[in-house]
Amino acid sequence: MVCALKRWIHAANPHPPHVRVYHKNKRTTKRKESPMTAPMIAGLTSAEQAVFAALWKRIETKAHKNELLNAYYDGHRVFQDLGISVPPQMARVSAALGWPAKAVSTLARKHVFEGYSLDGRLDPFDVTELLVRNSFDIELMQAIQSAYKHSCSFLVVGAGDTSAGEPPVVIQARDARWTSVQWDTRRRCVTAGLAINGTTSPDTDGWDVDSIARFVEPSDATLFLPGETIRLTRGKRGVWQVQRLPNPAGRVLIEMLTYDPQISRPFGRSRISREVRYLTDCAIRTMVRTEASAEFFSSPQRYVLGADEDAFADVDRWSAITGRILALSPNENGDIPSVGQFSQLSMDPHLSMYRQLAQNLCSATNMPTSSVGIFADNPASAEAMQAAEYALSDEAEYQWRVFTPALRRIIEDVVIVRDHSVSVPKESWKLAVNWTPARYVSPQASSDFIVKIAQAMPDVATTTVGMRRAGFTQQEIDQMQAETRRAGAMAILDRLDKLAGNAGA
């Protein structure tokens, strides 16, 4: 194992790697922070090797941050004890709080994909079957959730193995832990990509779940280039095999989904920001302090003055605290001992602090306070619920616009692979991505809108736009329109039957 690691440690770093611990439950994950070079692969050209090395370096560089984000998301962050007010017995408590996961999932679940349309026509490029066979709505949901966790995620398109039961075109979601790309800011597209499909532990020759965290060697990777796709596989003796697959599309079939991209940060940022991580650590400390205070709150501290030590010789601490009757004999001077109780501690300061931290978190993430368990005394009305989720819905609609270019390119990639074409479909730039409305619409508000819009503009009320504005999903709209057409057809048939009967008579 030592020899294998030495081969991967950069020559310019003679010092031993530093070890940090991020997880502290039944298992402990240690991360070795050591710069590591990408393997030299004989079958690659110098330009391809340079691209491979640059992308692998980015994966290695971001492994620290991605592992930390995973620890917060999964609730495995080590309790950050300040060493001031928490008793030593509780310093190693496995406290967890799901706020980071809430910050990610609450916004991600606002994105419900409903398909594509072009100038009002649904599925203009006849790709619905391929999307369904790829469970694209689930893949997209996972990609969006991963983007909110790690700042970006990826959708990879490739030809499927139909003999093995795969669809002709395969769409796969990838997270930033195992995938990296080169981004062209002028063309706003991916120019190269690297996906790590498997790794080999230096001491086991098998798949290692936490391989990136422990910096073991990749054993299976795919290098995506505009002209070809290169499959890289490392054998048991460390010999790499290179398999080149042509890519006639002339473009990298990887699309990137980002959360809140900026000019200086084209790969976006994570929903689990530094502020969210700090507030989570503070809230966990508050919860531990509250638990410690609860012990004293339920069993207040008592004191005895003027008693002999022999009076407590055969009494354990729990019996002394919980005993209803405490019998004490006079001391050697004949004085009767006096028993008192310290003022009972209040838990209100801890609860108030926890509530304030929860409100700060909701302010930082645009979440309603109800999502973190902060409720008002009276049930919220529909208007209050809508107002509470306004900021989150607004952010979801903003992200729709951010995701749209990548999702348009996904359909272009699917059509290119399906049709074995080298050009994108015409009018694909006008393709619209349909989502379930993010804003909560109460039944009363929906009914009021329908009545008013029907009175003012009767033709608009029955259109798809009008019904979506009223809060109906695309599936509900399709079903209503189908039933309306069916009812209209039945009415026409009834009229024809009546006319035929009258003519016969």
Strand runs, count: 15
**Share of residues in strands:** 15-25%
Order of helices and strands: HEEHHEEHHEEEEHEEEEHEHEHHHEHHHH
State the secondary-structure class.
Answer: alpha+beta
Give the strand order, joined by hyphens, for the main sheet. 7-8-9-10-11
- Helix count, DSSP H or I runs of 4 or more residues: 15
Q: How big is the Rg?
A: 32 Å
User: In one word, what is the shape?
Assistant: flat
Mean pLDDT: 78
What is the chains' assembly state? single chain
Distance between the termini: 98 Å
Poorly predicted segments: 1-35, 202-213
Largest sheet: 5 strands, antiparallel
- Share of residues in helices: 40-55%
Describe it.
By secondary structure, the protein is of the alpha+beta class. It has a domain at 303-341. The chain contains 15 helices and 15 strands. The protein has a 5-stranded antiparallel β-sheet, covered by helices on one side. Strands 4-3-15 form a 3-stranded antiparallel β-sheet, with helices on one face. Strands 6-5-12 form a 3-stranded antiparallel β-sheet. Strand 3 and strand 4 (121-122) form a beta hairpin. Helix 3 packs across helix 5. The longest helix has 31 residues, at 474-504. It is flat. The protein starts with a helix and ends with a helix. The model is unreliable at 1-35 and 202-213 (pLDDT under 50).
Q: What's the layout of helices and strands?
A:
Elements: H1 2-8, E1 18-21, E2 30-33, H2 46-73, H3 99-108, E3 113-118, E4 121-122, H4 128-133, H5 136-150, E5 152-159, E6 169-175, E7 179-184, E8 189-200, H6 211-214, E9 217-224, E10 228-234, E11 240-246, E12 254-258, H7 274-298, E13 302-305, H8 317-322, E14 338-341, H9 348-365, H10 382-388, H11 390-419, E15 432-435, H12 443-456, H13 458-461, H14 464-469, H15 474-504
Antiparallel strand pairs: 1-2, 3-4, 3-15, 5-6, 5-12, 7-8, 8-9, 9-10, 10-11, 13-14
Helix pairs in contact: 3-5, 7-9
